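Supplementary Methods S3. Input chains for the assembly prediction are listed below.
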Amino acid sequence: MRVSEHPILCFQRGKEIKFIYEERELTGYEGETIAAALHAAGVKVLSRSAVLHRPRGFFCAIGTCSSCLMVVDGVPNVRVCVTKLKEGMVVKEQHGRGRLG
Amino acid sequence: MKTVDICVIGGGPAGLNAALAAAGGGATVLLLDDADHLGGQLIKQTHMFFGSEKQQAGTRGIDIAVALTRAVQGTPSIEIWLETTALGLYDDGVLTAECLGEYRKVKAERFVVATGASEKMLAFRGNDMPGVYGAGAAQTLMNVFGVKPGQRVLMVGAGNIGLIVAYQLLQAGVSVAAIVEGSPQIGGYLVHAAKVRRAGVPILTSHTILEAYGGESVEGAVICRLDPAWQPILGTEQRIPVDVICLAVGLSPLSDLLWQADCRMLYIPELGGHVAWRDENLRTSQPHIFIAGDVAGIEEASSAMVAGQLAGYAAALDLKLAPSDVGERMALAQAELAALRSGPVGEKIRLGLESIRRDKR
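Predicted structure tokens for the full assembly:
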């Protein structure tokens, strides 16, 4: 799902990063957001809604719509569309409202 | 507490130009942005801009972002705080902000709010499903991170954003099933429409989306024709298998900070929704707060850049820290804005601005 050839842009990807998504080890690149790395790995569902538990993905990708909140390293409500991927991050689907602890 | 003459909130096309103009006569400037880069949404605009040479027409947005960022970084009187979110703007000229978990305060004599806009949602069944993205989000994913939003896209909206992003999807190797547009006419420039049509993408005017279907994410869309009263015509439904639905149905100004600062707000549909009342030099009803760019009303990046200059000069002029020829520069900016808003394309903007001018209360 990554762009391989482009008439205008040349993507210089950073170094490979391993991270954990729901017990699975995935690979992304330094400099990209968690949402971009997940999407490239085919993961579109990021959270479930609070009442009807409907699947949610990102919508705006610029940190304003709150559709992409996930639990990252135990911290809920992380906007993964604007949060950069780091080595060893543990990323989980968020179900409903975030809870600390 | 940090003390500066002028604080600019937002480092997109408007904010970058505001910072440069504000610093031009010796004022100290602090430029904030919540992202980890300057340039705002210019960093995903791979197309060449329209307008005159002065507004860098013929240059790609991504290159304008690089040039403006360099200019700001090369100005010693401009300090830059990235990954900094403005939280509150108060009557005593204090701004509170969060920077990487740290709480900060800024005291400035004048503020320029250039916080931009975000994509509008559209009401249809299944619109909350993963795979329904703002067109700008798909653009960020493919042009900034080099990740395809999907295999096959339905674009909703044939304004400039819908047309341009559809073309850029094709450039990224993604197929575009169709562009649907509720109005009987294409809203964007015909040169963009011609490009996507030549690539074989149908533009279906007087059509809308009724439903997104699928399980965990989008598997397709149901579209239909609209009658002249914009009502769906029964029996014209079509199922289109796609894994992505992009919405390009307009933008909303990100005006939360202006509401909180108690600026007088007006609902102006032609400008994208709620915007702050402002005078001809972009000063809001709060005398220490100026606005520029999409937060002042949805327009093109070219007008945002000129408006940023105008607001930056006006703020510096207040503090007697403007360049000596500031009167001339502001008149020039006003004339450029008028030129950018002339003609049939600028009609909506002109109507919106006229409603603000008439509101003298």
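Chain B touches chain A at residues 34-36, 41, 46, 60, 62, 118-119, 121, 128-134, 136-138, 140-150, 171-173, 216-217, 254 (CB under 8 Å). The first helix of chain B runs from residue 13 to 23.
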